[in-house]
Amino acid sequence: MAGRREGPLMRIGGQHSRGSRIAIAVAIGVLLGCVFAFLYPDGFLSSRSFAGSNSARLSQVISSSCASSTKRIKTLESQLAILTGKNRELSSQVNDLSMKLQIAGQGNTKALYKAGPFGSVKGFRKNPVVISDESVNPRLAKSLQQVAINNELIVALANSNVQSMLELWFTSIKRVGIKNYLVVALDDNIESFCKERDVPVYRRDPDEGIDSVAKTGGNHQVSGLKFRILREFLQLGYSVLLSDVDIVYIQNPFDHIYRDCDVESMSDGHSNATAYGYNDVFDEPAMGWSRYAHTMRIWVYNSGFFYIRPTVPSIELLDRVADRLSHEPKSWDQAVFNEELFFPSHPGYEGLHASRRTMDIYLFMNSKVLFKTVRKNSSLKKLKPVIVHLNYHPNKFERAKAVVEFYLNGNQKALDGFPDGSE
């Protein structure tokens, strides 16, 4: 059987149909090519277009992220400022409430506190400061705002009788770089003397009861005035480092103060035991087996150099001392100061409830420690005290100059020519 064969006409028609379809496809391809060539002259998948697109997107992401971070930082800073303000406000409220609570608890048998676990209970050591009352002395308040740093300053009282010591005093203060100090001038001459030497000075308003002593009084009489004068400083809310003028400053004392008690004072003690306290055994043989009686001893605080915080017990201390000195003209201000600070309550007497701290005797050094012990000890001579108080010796000015030479000018032999005591 013969196979099927296509005729010539059929072959011609098929070839023509296939060619038409190819032509149409080519035309469409050319048309699309023209369109894409017009829309994407650099190529549809060119690296330039791709990179540009990614770069733009990356830039947008970074900008958005930076803007978000900046906004977040500003928000956090704003929140921190608000929280800081609230913290100060709450601290002030806690301070005020603590004071009111303590005052309310005086003489009250009703329980105010709940005791915690064993070993966790501690009594009040740092009494809250009083609320500042500028109406007490607006002029002094304005002066203290200009001089004080962190609401504290060194204060010294001076009249013309101590002018030479005063100059040595503020010269050493300036040399150390202390800015927050003030001289309370007790006469016109000292006021002019300080102003001429660019020393911060304050002259009190006339007060006949004080001025009569201030202008002509000796060391002990003038020293007694400070308890009345300091009261205004405390009422204005300032902590005061009270300083006699027979003191040489070698470091800034505010870098070495604890500020954890009402009163922080240097000691007249000359050793760790005498300055910080010791158990002294009293022997009375006539008592037989009970002949030994244990006593607690501590040498007095020096009323010529102490740091006092503006608290209720501190102000009460000043009032007590000033009142006794006004009614006991032959009493010594340092003895009265220590009696009121240390004597406990007993029949007929209510003791002062003030916290106290003894300063380090080798940092806040009295002249007995220096001339009897330190200058003879090769190790102790290397220590750098904060201040030296020439309280134990009469020739204060000469010894003070020697202290300056030894500690500030490096003359290791400056102290050698003086006797231990006042002979």
Essential attributes:
elongated; alpha/beta; 423 residues; 3-stranded mixed sheet; 47% helix
Could you characterize the architecture of this molecule?
This protein has 423 residues and is of the alpha/beta class. It is built from twelve helices and twelve strands. The protein has a seven-stranded mixed β-sheet with strand order 3-2-1-4-9-6-10, with helices on both faces. Strand 11 (364-366), helix 11 and strand 12 (387-389) form a beta-alpha-beta unit. The radius of gyration is 42 Å and the shape is elongated. Mean pLDDT is 85; it is low at 1-16 and 44-51.
Radius of gyration: 42 Å
Low-confidence stretches: 1-16, 44-51
Topology order in helix (H) and strand (E) letters: HHHEHEHEHHEEEHEEEHHEEHEH
Q: For the report, how would you describe the main beta sheet?
A: 7 strands, mixed
Q: Please state the average pLDDT score.
A: 85
Number of strands: 12
The assigned structural class equals: alpha/beta
Give helix % range: 40-55%
> Biggest sheet, strands in spatial order?
3-2-1-4-9-6-10
Distance between the ends? 161 Å
- What share of the residues does DSSP label as strand, in percent? 5-15%
What topology does this entry show?
Blueprint: H1 8-39, H2 47-105, H3 138-147, E1 152-158, H4 163-176, E2 181-185, H5 188-196, E3 201-203, H6 208-216, H7 219-235, E4 239-243, E5 247-249, E6 263-267, H8 272-276, E7 278-283, E8 292-297, E9 301-308, H9 312-327, H10 333-342, E10 356-358, E11 364-366, H11 367-372, E12 387-389, H12 396-408
Parallel strand pairs: 1-2, 1-4, 2-3, 6-10, 11-12
Antiparallel strand pairs: 4-9, 5-12, 6-9, 7-8
